[in-house]
Amino acid sequence: MEVLYNKKDKHAIVAFAKRLEGKTLWQACGTVGMHQIGGKGNFGSLLEKHYFGYEPNSDAQPDFPEAGLELKTTPLKKHAKAGLVSKERLVLNLINYVQLTKETFADSSFWKKNSQLLLVFYLHDKEKTLLDYDIKVVGSWEFPEEDLAVIKADWETIVTKVRQGKAHELSEGDTFYLGACTKGAKGGNRRQQPFSHIQAKQRAFSLKQGYVNHILHRLTQGGRERYGTILKTQERTASVPLEEVVMERFRPFYGMEVEAIVRQIGCDLNSRAKGFYASLTKVVLGIQPDEQIDEFEKGDVVIRTVRLKPNGNAAEDISFPAFRYKELVEQSWDTSDLKEDLEKKFFFVFYKYDSSGGLYLQKAAFWNMPYTDLEEARKVWLETVRRIRRGQAHTLPKKSENRVCHVRPHARNSHDTNETPDGQLVVKKSFWLNNSYIKEIYTSLS
DNA sequence: GCATGATCATGC
DNA sequence: GCATGATCATGC
User: Is the CB of A387 under 7 A from strand B?
Assistant: First the structure.
């Protein structure tokens, strides 16, 4: 195939790639060779072969070595409120656990391959074949310095865990922007790790979905939200770890009553408004209540506020979105919404009531679910699916059945129902983290 | 006092 | 109108 661009010139490659915008694979590549394809392969490799004219490979080099540019294609989906958003994380190169522990960031396989990305965003549509997906946005991406500092720290977190012989315990929730996501048939592929005999799931470096959305917004000037950043200029310059900065923002207020915190910061928050605690968290972090937290959005960080009773027990369980019975039984654990939700990085803010009803800030900390607890959640999830299939959607796993989580109604009222596979209408339900488990989390962080 | 069921407030 | 995160109500 004739190559229609200078493969050594980054700008020429990007300009050539830009011509994909508004087209489908079919339109962009013409009919040449397309009859041989018949929809086989994946979007990325078809684009490499039939548009850019090179054979897909798994080299350590970027796809355009002379230009240092790595081509990545990634799906978008339509979001009712936000318009087009990333459908998933962006999967980068596979992790070789043995090699990884011998690398430094600057000479790492991750950085050699992915320091400059050429991104092709297409709109995924399950009604279409991939030849007919609309290519929406094309652009090149280099990581700004402030993001790179976070990504380097993430990379170090991953390497450290592997050096500790814990590659099998890696989780996406370990890190902020750069994740180690499972890759391969249902996460079933196992690989050797250098400092343990336990086989670890095959994983790849990946950019969190939130970070991909950030890239998309930057390339399109899109995104209507206002953002505030936690990291201020001098902290960025000094490369202070994000986690440390967040902890330092909260520490001065430990032990203080909420109204006193509001007074000390001098902000105008109504403590009776339902979003009060969410706003207070932002204000403590130095962010306006009407702004999104830049670093947390990029890192898919989930904020949860927890009130502890005077005896130290969590006052409430923590809910996740209601599921649909018929959809749940079609999923596998590895592709389940619950696993996706539980593997996120959480930011917990704990308040505690004293005996006279005053509420005091106790602790704020990042947390992600340990692997062994995720296995407990898996059991509950599997049992839930099993009972729904048996027509027992009325009696799903209770709090007393598992240490970590349970299933409970989560609806507008008792008439707010979903249909089960056998045609019953049962009140909408969701998974909840047990309040006793939340107390465990609090204890582990103190 | 807690587990379980039920429902609310908010934002889009 | 609904999803989401949060909280209330009741009975044992």
Answer: no
Model confidence over A104-133: pLDDT tens digits? 999 999 999 999 999 999 999 888 888 889
The structure tokens listed for A298 are 């990029």
Closest CA to A410 of A308, A319, A278: A319
Q: Which residues contact A191 (CB under 8 A, 6 or more apart)?
A: A96, A97, A167, A199, A200, A201, A202
DSSP state of A96: -
Check whether residue A160 has its CB closer than 7 Å to nucleic acid strand B: no
Q: Which residues have C-beta within 8 Å of that of residue A419, sequence separation ≥ 6?
A: A325, A326, A425
Spatial neighbors of A354 by CB under 8 A, at least 6 apart, are A310, A360
A415 touches strand C (CB under 7 A): no
Q: Phi and psi at residue A367, in whole multiples of 5°?
A: -155, 145
Q: For residue A397, give the nucleotide whose C1' atom is nearest its CA.
A: B4
C-beta within 7 A of nucleic chain C, residues 6-65 of A: none
**The predicted structure's pLDDT at residue A416:** 94
A204-213, A307-316, A397-406: which has the minimum mean pLDDT?
A: A307-316
Which domains does chain A possess?
A: 10-220 (3.40.600.10), 233-445 (3.40.600.10)
Q: How far does the CA of A306 sit from the C1' of B3, in Å? A: 19
User: Would you state the torsion angle of the CA atoms of residues A309, A312, A315, A318, taken in this order, to the nearest 10 degrees?
Assistant: 150
Residues in A 244-273 whose C-beta is less than 7 A from nucleic strand B are: 273
Report the nearest residue to nucleotide B9, CA vs C1': A274
pTM for this model (two decimals): 0.94
Q: How many CA atoms lie within 13 A of A205 on its CB side?
A: 25
Measured over all CA atoms, what is the biggest interatomic distance in chain A, rounded to whole angstroms? 79
